[in-house]
Amino acid sequence: MGFLNYALRRAIDRFVLLIALLILMWAIVEGLPELFGINPAIWYVPVGQLGKSASFYESIINTITIMYGFNKPLYVQFVDYMKNLLTFNLAYDFQHHEYVIVEIERALPYTVLLTVPPLIFQTILAVILGSYAAIKRNTWVDHVISNYLIIQYNIPGFFILAVLWVIFAVYVKIVPISAISVINFSKPVTILEAYWLPWVILTFIFGFPVRGILMRNTMVDVIDSDFIKYARTVGFNERILRGMARRNSLIPVVTRTAIDLAFILGGIFFVEYIFGIPGMGYLGVEAALELNIPLLVGTFYLLTVYALIILYINDLIYPLIDPRIKLR
To answer: Of 206, 327, 198, 317, whose CA–CA distance to 251 is shortest?
Structure first.
């Protein structure tokens, strides 16, 4: 029951965070504009209709206002807004002539495939390199790994991203100019062809330096702790001691993985757009360029839900590392 109670509390915490973010998003998109006399229906008008006659434009605004209830009291709009988002009843995209949820369902698998493997690879590399540097501390191995992590942290990621795309897609031609016409989920070869370089970039450029440094420094402290020294004096095998130290050093790494997820999700907007991967980031950039607010809101909402789900999975990993957490 201890673990179930812990899992339930963490689920409630994540849900409360989601509600807070939705309230903030509603205030920005609908609440504050209406307080200043701006009808949110203007966000839904297709850009191509803005040059039409004033009467035609007004008729569109009136239709959208009634359709989405922007003529109702503000508290009613807020309740409807929250209910629609929590049930994934997203708005209609008048610019692309389909529901936002349909566009997102089409794009989400591309983003999941882009972000999950690098997140796993990053964490594994951070643990391996950080723990090895701790074991070999103050040797040339430690200096090489630590300096590499510092260099990786200071790499201008977005610039290197564009340079690598030009080199491998434009000149060497071993990466497609745009992955949209290449990716076929029924053919794994096309997935590898389109994704291998974005995976490398997200792993080694938008990568794991802070986690690696945290792993190294925490494990050094654990190795120097009294319980490891005592276990060594009573005859524990050095390999077992290293395993104990490694496990006790994982908590900061797991915590930082949750933080780094935000950087990965921020980076996918550029990665997907440059490499032509039709995922959530690509969809978000298109929505921003078109001033397509319903699509932007839907993209932000689903990315938020996606991030919170991964964070919740992250929360559930803690007790596997430190069983004492189940009792807290």
So the answer is: 317
